[in-house]
Amino acid sequence: MGSLQHNFCFSLFSVSSTLFLLLSLPCFPCNPSPEARRLIDRQTLEVGIGSGPAIGIGIGIGGGSYTPPSSPVSEPSCPPQNPPPPPPGDLTPGDFPNLLLYESYVVIQRFKKTIYSDPFHITGTWVGPDISKYRGFFLETPPRFKNNTPAIASVDFNGFRLGAPTLAGFLDQFPDLALFHANSNGFAGTLPGLTHLPYFYELDLSNNKFAGEFPSSVLPLFNLAFLDLRFNFFAGAVPPSVFSLPVEVLFLNNNRFSQPLPSAVGRTTAPYLTLANNDFTGAIPSSIGETGGTLIQVLFLGNSLSGCLPAGIGRLQKATVFDAGFNKITGPIPLSLGCLSKVEQLNFAGNLLYGEVPAEVCRLANRARLLNLSLSENYFTSLGSGCLDLLRRGILDVRKNCIQGCAGQRSPEECALFLACRKYCPAVEYVPCYSGWESRAGNHGSSSPSAKKNGR
């Protein structure tokens, strides 16, 4: 701090000295001799060179005017000159409660100059030394200080629709930042590294213009609890280590990610996982069952997933929403899904599923919390016991299937064409919540007709 104060005082002295020199130059006659003209030109050049760097540092010296000394009576005086304008940035560290806020002020003003869109005039509030009045900025005393030392702790630009080419040099310049929310803006560029921010734990860049590969700068953020990258233009693969982040919310939907869904999905601790509306391929990995103690909502809809539904889905004891609609998933519904005792929304519409709609799943509407079972646009051929009641109550949707006696089904020709194709997904009848999942851990995917004898 002593060094900063010394440098500041030295810079301020340099500015003041230069300006004093500029204002106290002797006033030559209005029609000087050639010798005097050469002297004027030389001194003007010296002052111009000397004053440039000092004024350019942006430390103001106040808005007061200065009256130059009178010229000698015996010589005609030049017309009076206006005082020079104050240098850009007319605030000094002394105008702020602490040096941290002054440094933040400098960062904000620099970022403000890069903003090309501000329809709500947000940046018009970013003036003066009271940063607590700047819209979008919030101050708190960080844990590293015991006394009252306010600093920028969070930035919330949600809905501001600001446009800037990059967040580099801004987002990474607040040493005590904990949250950055910027939903629905026009930010782009490369996300800067944030590992030097010890308190940072929430990042929301949803609905912006970011593009390119997954932003690897978030991967070392082991304190991150909230990551929202929805509605951008990120593409390519999602690194498996993303699913090892200790986040509670992981929203990657509505981008352009394209890869087989990695088995690392089973490592996530996020209760809320959204991978919808990308171009993920392959089967839902069986490792999804390993998230049974944490996963509450998972959205896989709107990708290009294929393969068979894994029986491990039935292990999601806390899941309230499981949505894998509008993919290319095929096979019968595993009976293990009858163990989803807390599920409210179950969506497999728009796939290639076939067989019977399991009675075990339909019973969830009576003995559990199921409110919506969407199976439209598949190739189911029959309804299990109790499913017809759900159909009448509006809980079950089986439009555009191949179920005789139900309205709004596919044509017989379309059904026959699909059903004639080779089927490769086994009928998984094992129901873990009835027959003891843990004791059968080595046989999760096998068919077990004996399950019907064990109380199902």
From TrEMBL:
<keyword id="KW-0964">Secreted</keyword>
<feature type="compositionally biased region" description="Low complexity">
    <location>
        <begin position="66"/>
        <end position="76"/>
    </location>
</feature>
<feature type="signal peptide">
    <location>
        <begin position="1"/>
        <end position="24"/>
    </location>
</feature>
<feature type="region of interest" description="Disordered">
    <location>
        <begin position="66"/>
        <end position="93"/>
    </location>
</feature>
<dbReference type="InterPro" id="IPR051582">
    <property type="entry name" value="LRR_extensin-like_regulator"/>
</dbReference>
<dbReference type="InterPro" id="IPR032675">
    <property type="entry name" value="LRR_dom_sf"/>
</dbReference>
<dbReference type="InterPro" id="IPR001611">
    <property type="entry name" value="Leu-rich_rpt"/>
</dbReference>
<keyword id="KW-0732">Signal</keyword>
<dbReference type="Pfam" id="PF00560">
    <property type="entry name" value="LRR_1"/>
</dbReference>
<dbReference type="GO" id="GO:0005576">
    <property type="term" value="C:extracellular region"/>
</dbReference>
<keyword id="KW-0677">Repeat</keyword>
<feature type="compositionally biased region" description="Pro residues">
    <location>
        <begin position="77"/>
        <end position="90"/>
    </location>
</feature>
<protein>
    <submittedName>
        <fullName>Uncharacterized protein</fullName>
    </submittedName>
</protein>
